């Protein structure tokens, strides 16, 4: 049985994302798989690539053949170099910068009212009731 490491397409029209899977070469592109070993989102900038390196090394060692697209991804992650015996193989995947934490502008007036005003209104109500009882 020929086993391939290939991409399984998911997502909407014009918004694809892929899973890197190990499957029998005779199955459909999006059909039954043996194992999912990674993710690839080409529409993000930079592209999101995540591969389970241990599982990729295992499947390559038992003879699974990567497709051209997956081979290119494995070269980026350094897994192909490790498989071929290159000890200096390293990941060249670009990682997106983390988003900056949101900080509210101190100069602007807050939309929410402070909690201190609510108890003040509650104190006025019993005073009004006491005044009505006296009358």
SSE order and pairing:
Elements: E1 3-12, E2 15-24, E3 35-41, E4 48-51, H1 53-61, E5 65-66, H2 68-77, H3 79-84, H4 117-134
Could you characterize what this model shows?
The chain is of the alpha+beta class. The protein is built from four helices and five strands; from the N terminus they run ββββαβααα. The chain has helices at residues 53-61, 68-77, 79-84, 117-134; strands at 3-12, 15-24, 35-41, 48-51, 65-66. Strands 4-3-2-1-5 form a five-stranded mixed β-sheet. The chain starts with a strand and ends with a helix. The relative contact order is 0.13.
User: Mean pLDDT, nearest integer?
Assistant: 82
Beta-strand percentage range: 15-25%
> What structural category arises from helix and sheet content?
alpha+beta
The end-to-end distance, rounded to whole angstroms, is: 97 Å
Globally, the shape reads: elongated
Helix content: 25-40%
Series of secondary-structure elements, N-terminal to C-terminal: EEEEHEHHH
Strand order of the largest sheet: 4-3-2-1-5
């Amino acid at each position: 049985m020929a086993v391939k490491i290939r991409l399984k397409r998911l997502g909407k029209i014009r918004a694809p994302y892929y899973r890197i899977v190990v499957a029998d070469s005779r199955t459909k592109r999006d059909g039954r798989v043996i194992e999912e070993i990674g993710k690839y989102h080409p529409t993000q900038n930079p592209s999101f690539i995540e591969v389970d390196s241990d599982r990729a090394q295992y499947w390559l060692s038992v003879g699974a053949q990567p497709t051209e697209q997956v081979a290119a991804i494995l070269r980026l992650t350094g897994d192909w170099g490790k498989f071929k015996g290159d000890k200096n193989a390293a990941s060249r995947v670009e990682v997106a910068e983390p988003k900056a934490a949101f900080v509210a502008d101190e100069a602007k007036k807050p939309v929410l009212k402070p909690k201190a005003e609510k108890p003040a209104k509650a104190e006025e109500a019993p005073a009004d009731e006491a005044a009505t009882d006296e009358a």
